[in-house]
Amino acid sequence: xxxxxxxxxxxxxxxxxxxGKLSLMGVLQLTN
Length: 32
Fold this sequence. Notes:
The protein is mainly α. It has one helix and no strands. The protein is rod-shaped, with a radius of gyration of 14 Å.
């Protein structure tokens, strides 16, 4: 059970990083 939550935490972190990259790319496109 603990392993499952650890995995879920990793997935959430990866999603946050991906969202951050996407928003960063969006900002870069807006400034161009």
